[in-house]
Amino acid sequence: MQNTNEEDIMLEDNNLLENLDKFIEETSNLKSHINSLNLIQEHCNSLASSLNLHIVKMSALSQEMENVQEKNKNLDLEIRNTTLLYDELKKLLIVLEIKDEHFEALHSLNTPISKIERALDIFTSVSLENYTLDLALEKKELIQTQLKSFFKKFSTFFATILASPTPTGELIIHTDLYKTITPYKEILKYFKKYENYTLISSVYTTFSKDTYNHELSYQLKIITKVINHDMDIKEAFDILFQSIFLVYRAENFFVKRVILPEEDCLEMLEFIFRDFNNALVNGIKKIYKNAPVTCLNALKSVIEKYRPKNSEKIFKNKNNFEIQDKESLNKSEKEEINESYKIIFGKLILEVESFYEELKQDFIQKERSQYEYEGRKKGLIRTINILKKSEIEEINSSLLSNVIESLSNYPPKKYSDIVNKRILCYQILNSTESNSFLIDSDKIRLNEFEDKVKDEFEKESIGYVFKDEEYEKRIKNIIKEIGELKIVKNEFKKICVENSDNKNEIENIFKTTEY
């Protein structure tokens, strides 16, 4: 047992010795690595010293670069300021050396327009606002004085152009005036920039307004003469409104090109034609008093021809002629108002249409009252004359209804009243046969009314004619009362023949009776 323990102890000692040998061997290797690490550390220390040196050098170089950059900025600013100063001095020199011929060009309006435009271009392209040199201030004052003097002369000259005798002719496009003013459109542009342009534009608008009002008055007098000579008022109205449209369009293009270039000219055109529209309505009112039916027919015709196709969408409502929001309109609707003249002409037509509606209702009311005042016979003759001329369905329908109602409520007191009623019914029907301006319901109503009157006429005629043996005398009297109305006479003849036992005798009475 003791021997075993000793052996174990010796084995442990041997293991310990082996491990110790290994440790000594590894320690020897570690020393060689430590030497290598020391060398690496020495090299790193050398690199750190070199890096610190480079950092110092880079910092110094960066500071030097910043200094150079600052100097470059200052130098660049100095160069720019010098260049600006040079340019300003160059401009100033140009201004101070403006030739006398340019000043002389503005002394007289007889100077060729090209030279005047050149002088204005030079004077208005320079600016001396920022200069305080006495020489610059003197030149500035001289230029302003020269421009002010020229614009004053030109204003007087422009007014002289428009001071020609007021035309006495009808409504026309003022081509000659446009040709006279157009060469000065560039001068007008300069005038607009440097003077109160309303002074000169108001001269033109006032002249145009007065001229067009005068010409319209003359044109309306011509239409009145047309009425007096029983000529075609429709054609006269069509010519009038076509002339108005062409005048609006020509004035639009001229104002837009010469008076207010590159600006919306709607406001100026509305001012020019503001009184014009009122004068037109008043003129129509006078024509209406002289010939109401033909006037209304003519108005209806021009309204149908010239009314804006999409007016319900373009304008806010029937009594408000302001334009709707353009973004809400489609392409075709926008095209109807893409020029100022289309807008003011569209408004004019709608104003005329509104006035036409008033006149139409006024006419219907007056005619119904006049019918009652004159009595059935005279009133019917008046109504028949209207129905022969009227091309307005609403008027025809109203007057026809009035007559039918009046005759329907007419209680005949004697047979002659029955005959008279049949004659009046025939006259109404005859007056409307050639009138294509009746609605279908009125035609049906009129035919139904005629059938009732004819039935009444037949029934009463039989009882009246053949009530005793003196029918021949009564037949002759009725024939004379019917007169030349062959249709009514033949109708009466048929009634008598068909209801008589002696047809040949009746035939002979009609043959031998004159009317």
From TrEMBL:
Signal sequence region: none
GO terms, molecular function: phosphatidylinositol-4,5-bisphosphate binding
Matches recorded under PANTHER family: EXOCYST COMPLEX COMPONENT 1 ISOFORM X1, SEC3/SYNTAXIN-RELATED
GO BP annotations listed: exocytosis; Golgi to plasma membrane transport
Pfam families on file: Sec3_CC (PF09763)
UniProt keyword terms in alphabetical order: Coiled coil
Entry protein name: Exocyst complex component Sec3 coiled-coil domain-containing protein
GO CC annotation: exocyst; plasma membrane
Keyword Isomerase: no
Coiled-coil annotated spans: 51-85
High-level lineage: Eukaryota, Fungi, Fungi incertae sedis, Microsporidia, Dubosqiidae
Origin: domain of life: Eukaryota
Record's keyword annotation contains Coiled coil: yes
InterPro entries: Sec3_CC (IPR019160)
Organism for this UniProt entry: Hamiltosporidium tvaerminnensis
Annotated Exocyst complex component Sec3 coiled-coil domain residues: 19-111
